[in-house]
Amino acid sequence: MYRIGGRLIFDLYGKSHGPCVGAVLEGFPAGMEVDFDLLNEEMSLRKPTGRIGTPRRESDTPEFKEGLTDGVTDGGNIRIEIANKDTDGSKYMKFYDTPRPGHADLPALLKFPNHDLRGSGQFSGRLTAAMVAAGALAKQYLSARGIEIQAYSKSIGDVRDVNVRDPEEIRGSRMFPTRACDAETDKRMRLCIEKAGAEGDSVGGVAECVITGLPISFGGIWFEALDAELAHSMFGIPACKGIEFGDGFALAGMNGSVSNDPYRYENGSIVTTTNHLGGIVGGMCDGSPVVFRVVFKATPSIGKCQDTVNLKTGKNDTVEVTGRHDPCIVPRAVAVVEAMAAITVMDQLLRE
Ligand SMILES: Cc1cc2nc3c(=O)[nH]c(=O)nc-3n(C[C@H](O)[C@H](O)[C@H](O)COP(=O)(O)O)c2cc1C
Question: How far is the CA of 289 from the centre of ligand 1 (A)?
Answer without folding.
Answer: 29
